[in-house]
Design a protein that fits this description.
Layout: E1 5-11, E2 44-48, H1 57-60, E3 63-65, E4 85-89, E5 93-97, E6 103-107, E7 113-117, E8 148-155, E9 161-164, H2 171-178, E10 196-203, E11 206-212, E12 239-245, H3 253-267, H4 269-272, E13 276-281, H5 288-298, E14 305-307, H6 316-330, H7 342-345, E15 356-360, E16 363-367, H8 369-376, H9 383-396, H10 398-404, E17 412-415, E18 418-421
Parallel strand pairs: 1-3, 2-4, 9-11, 9-12, 12-13, 13-14, 16-17
Antiparallel strand pairs: 1-8, 2-7, 5-6, 5-8, 10-11, 15-16, 17-18
The protein binds guanosine-5'-triphosphate and magnesium ion.
Guanosine-5'-triphosphate (GTP) binds at residues 165, 167-173, 185-187, 189-192, 214-215, 281-282, 284-285, 309-311.
Length: 432
Amino acid sequence: MFYDTARIYVKAGDGGDGVVSFRREKYVPEGGPNGGDGGRGGNIEFIVDEGLRTLVDFKYKRHYKAGRGQHGQGKNMHGKSGEDLILRVPPGTLIKDADTGELLADLTVPGQRIIAARGGRGGRGNARFLSNKQRAPRIAEKGEPGEERWLQLELKLLADVGLLGFPNAGKSTLISRISAAKPKIADYPFTTLSPNLGVVSVEEGKSFVVADIPGLIEGAHQGVGLGHDFLRHLERTRVLIHVIDLSSFEQEPIDAFRIINRELELYSPELSKKPQVVAANKIDVPEAKERLASLIEALDPNIPVFPISAVTGEGVTDLLYKVQAMLEEIGPVEPETVPETAWKETRYDPEKEPFTVTPEDGIYIVTGKEVERQVAMTDMANEEAVRRLARILRKMGVDDALREAGARDGDEVRIGDLIFDFVESRASEAHD
Ligand SMILES: Nc1nc2c(ncn2[C@@H]2O[C@H](COP(=O)(O)OP(=O)(O)OP(=O)(O)O)[C@@H](O)[C@H]2O)c(=O)[nH]1
Ligand SMILES: [Mg+2]
């Protein structure tokens, strides 16, 4: 099996908790606060590894978790950061949000690296809550939870040229002739089961990458045969070499050409618009010349046709020069553009982050990233911290929204794991 898609779950590390601690020195009965911050949680990152060709690693392991930050300690000692988890992917990997399908990154360049889920920041220790009003703060934050999400990984091979055609047309023979690729070649359909890449050097300093995929048959766009699973690997090519078998008695060459192009169009109109060169293959067999003549007659004269023999090498050089010239004329393709900020945009601005209040069976459920984050970072056993949470929620407008939704004194409210009673006219007192 050739693995070119995967669905994985990533969870960045939670931040470590901040700590409440005070200096204890001889002759100083009550020293200042010196509780350190928790460490940052580890990120989940992707890096492009040139040596990889498939996403097979992600088939066997689906859940990935980065390390959590250590908790802070007394004497202003901060916790250590959690370890980042770095996942290696082959060039050509697209990363999408599995829930929305939104494209998050197109990883094409070896060494390219992105953060897929950010570790939570460490909670602040009580030393950071020191102020003129509060000389002995007994408050510390818990660590921020790390981001978590389901991701869809999709490999689209990076090749300049794609080989297209019926099974047995001679695609693999051609790639093995023009590059160092060593695919399986045999006289029966569906010999090739997964894509092969080969680098073709036409002349010094000029080379391009060719992709050989399993052959297509009629009905391919509906999933008949194998080829359609691999058509995605032609999506990034710039030129298609349409390999046609001149030796087949079962099919007129022009019919082969038309059937394949219809399949291509039904699969993707965009793909069908890519420039094609016809490689009329097996010109070495008897009767091939006649069939070539009828093919040329029936074809649109704008489509270049090269009679070749992938076995003897006849005509192959001319074909390659033509393909090289076409590539130069077309110029390089841009990777699928993803705004630089794609990952940042998935982060939120705490001030603007919306929340919703949903009444359900007499309980008011408040949901939203920021409200849930604030709750998660509050140590509910710490009265001062709970009062601070109540102030933050009020400032965010949660109290007003609850009131508007019909909440009355004593009604139950839920945010994340926290359940508390709505208290009119003063800070909501929280209890677990
Ligand atoms: N006589 C002759 N035979 C050829 C030529 N090119 C390929 N063949 C033969 O055609 C058969 C199929 O070749 P492959 O290269 O495996 O065909 P393919 O298009 O890759 O087929 P799939 O992988 O099934 O899609 C093999 O027996 C080859 O030896 C050629 O130029 N001349
Ligand atoms: Mg093949």
